[in-house]
Amino acid sequence: MVRMSAEERRESVVRAATAEFARGGYHGTSTEAIAKRVGVSQPYLFRLFPGKKAIFLAAAERCSQDIIRMFTEAAEGLEGEEALHAMANAYTRTIAERPELLMMQMQMYLAVAAAEQEGDHEFGASVRAGWLRLWDTVHLALGADVGETTTFMAYGMLINCVAAMGFPPEHRIWEGLSPSARSECPSRE
Predict the structure, then answer these.
(1) In CATH, what number does 6-181 get?
(2) Is the pTM of the predicted complex or chain greater than 0.85?
(3) Residues of the signal sequence (predicted)?
């Protein structure tokens, strides 16, 4: 049996944490559940990360990086409307294939709001920095047009909400969205 390096184990913790936090949220997920999913002890988990907050922020950062990479690859060599449609199609396909990314995003927003209410502004600053990089990626791909970027991100948030609530693709709520968004998004019936 090949032993994993600390970096490989850390990566497996981030993947497991993403799945657990996506399902249970920050407050509803225990480090014990993450350790169990990875197959390590809690003390080993805390040798890799100083605490639950650090694990959550690493998972949030990974989620943002994955979506940024997906948008960057989808828009590569494209401009304007072509870039917009390529990114939109890639996103809906991605959240259909990896619903934990959709749910992790939703949990990130909730966790920031809760942390801010508790006076923890570092938490929100970290998540907002990832979201700002996401915004900038889309903004550049759309020719630095603020209106286009705002519209794209607004539709993305609508897709997040509708998909997270499990509206099936044929539901009337999807009518204002492109046919590819309807067909690609996951249904949670």
Answers:
(1) 1.10.357.10
(2) yes
(3) none
